[in-house]
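USER:
Class, as today's exercise, take the chain set out below, and explain how the chain folds.
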Amino acid sequence: MGHQPVLAVAVAEYLVWDQDGLYVDGTVGCAMHARGILDRLTSKGRLWGFDWDEQMLELARRQLAAERTRVRLFDEAFSRIGARLQEAGERAHGIFLDLGLNSVALDDSERGFRYRDAGAPLDMRMDRRRKQTAATLLNEATEEELLALARSLGEVRSARAAVRAIVRAREQAPLRCAGDRVVALRRGGALRGGAAELSRLWQALRFRVNEELEDLDAFLAEVAEWLVPQGRLVVISYESLSDRRVKALHRAGPGGARSFRLLTRRVVRPDREEIRKNPRARSAKLRAMERTA
């Protein structure tokens, strides 16, 4: 399926409050959300887009080719937004992140993001410049390292059984494709949770290969400084590890100081019609907040 932006109307409505401002899409992907943001801006309004996936960034360039005077694109992770703003002597009026996988990348079997693609290489890199692939990690990490990975990043229920199954399988032959891992887990009796357990295991591996939570932590620690007073932060997350981090951002820090106030008292979710059209949106959670003065 082609990529469909999740909660596109809500993103633009919560994010854009000054139509002449500078807005940043930190996960620009195919630029579908970026297009919606630009449509709400005046000719003075600008948008910066960041993505560490070269394939996605090229799609964004094509999608936004007619907006070159208002758009700048950066081949970098969203944790680098602050450095680029500082270089330009700017602060953003709003920053947006969609922490899900782009459907274009997800549906590309050569990327290895889906366990259902049995012949797909165990790659999982969003940034192809990274040296470590999922296969490298699975075949070279120690048993204890894999166990910590499954428990902390995947919240896997049968973590010990899953890791032992992987270690036994790789002793026979290196794990090279998605099917190798699935077969190893099934033989080891490590999939009592079925498809949900497999998804959690794939999530854990993807998180580690790309250091996604580390990147998110670095972003959240500094993002308040990248925004003008009253600047907006809008984030869509799809699983609990990321969502808990975003949710905690508006809480009081040391000394009782708050950097953000919530704009969404309750998490915003896709309605039934959007989920019907785009089933991958079903787990999306949108949180919006405003930087305090």
About this structure: The chain has a mean pLDDT of 90. The chain has two domains: 8-104+212-291, 109-210.
